[in-house]
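ok so I'm stuck.
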Amino acid sequence: MLETERAMQAEIAHDRDCSRTAETLIRQRQDMARLVKERKALGDLTPISADVPQPPHQIRRCPI
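replied:
not stuck anymore, here's the structure
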């Protein structure tokens, strides 16, 4: 799913049609939501986390 999101962002950045990629991403999110519902129905309530590296936060400084 992360690769699909990056591909869509690249298409947008290059002013290309991203509708097919967006539809793929929507289907992936629907599948993920269905899988989460199945887990909960089976009694697994453990939170799902994705260890996605975040870029370092930039400190904004006020101009003097």
